[in-house]
Amino acid sequence: MSTTESSSQSAPESAVLIPSLSDDVALNCLARIPRCHHPTLSLVSKTFRSLLSSPLLFNARSLLNSTQHFLYLTLRSHTLQNPFSWLTFYKPQHNSLPDHTHFQALIVPVPPIPSPSVGSAYATLGPKIYVLGGSVNDVPTSHVWVLDCRFHTWEPGPSMRVGREFAAAGVVDGKIYVMGGCAVDSSARSAHWAEVFDPVVGRWEAVPSPIEVRDKWMHASAVVGGRIYAMADRGGVVYSPMRKEWEGVGVDLDMGWRGRACVVDEVLYSYDYLGKIKGFDFRNGEWKELKGVDKELPKFLCGATMANVGGRLIVLWEEKVDRNENRNVRRKDIDIWCAEIEVKKNGDRDQYGKIHWSEKVLSVPFGSSIVHCTGVSL
């Protein structure tokens, strides 16, 4: 569908976006403006505000290849009124700037999830983040909440067939798969240990699974080559939606995967027990240390969170700090650091990383922690 056709179908209330320009030309111009300028753009006129709150603009950005990559971050705190806070991370376009150029990061708060839960699974599908299940007052829930990242609005999604906490989730061919996180102590839960959601149909359906793969708790998951890898307390399982086949995770992958991982170019990145980032190449079936970054990054002995944002490896980590507000008052905080790494392989199958920037992006109250992060293109 061309931008002209889109404009004729979903034009904003006013017939004129920019005087002396046709709507399709005006839309092509406005769709190229970086999203960080949209708040200012909304002040121009009611027509612009209407356009910015319409899917039309985002459809045009996609068609014009003008989408940008954003990082969405979920934090948990025991000291704030709302235990979970959502943020989106904006950074300036700096392709023309030297590496390590300092810039002021812009953190934009996202409205809190209407019903927070602990141990939810997450799945990103297009411009939407699905928060699947979790426990509320120690009771697993089947509820699904959907964040539309285009407009930062929450809406309830179709509930799963069973309640889950600490489940695995992945997206393959536009469908969301979720597995585990439930005790198979009834025929209904056993039959729906794995489920699939098709947004076109709008409902969850059972995915048949053999008894031997049905572990309860899942600590990590990833999608590689159209297959969903789900790591359980003991070992893990792999599901191929195309073949509808289940199998076990190999010993080498299982031993090296500590959770909080992400996939970039078919390589799964995690960190080992020495705090170094390593990548598992599925084609070669081996772990390799990511070289070139160890001098500029800390040892992640307390863990780090990773995401694929526009084909780059994004690593976030927490640092505890003591601050002196005055001579008599000391305050403990948590600093959130972020690094953007370009990863590549050479002919010897070694993996190399180039850090494009590394900055402290946020300070939060002591006791806060990173729950989840993901990349979204808008």
Automatic annotation (TrEMBL):
Superkingdom of origin organism: Eukaryota
Transmembrane segments: none
FKB95-like N-terminal Kelch domain mapped to chain residues: 89-362
SUPFAM superfamilies: F-box domain (SSF81383), Kelch motif (SSF117281)
Xref: Pfam families: F-box, Kelch_FKB95
Gene3D superfamilies, per the entry: Kelch-type beta propeller
Ranges of residues in domain F-box: 18-57
Protein's recorded name: F-box domain-containing protein
Upper taxonomic lineage: Eukaryota, Viridiplantae, Streptophyta, Embryophyta, Tracheophyta
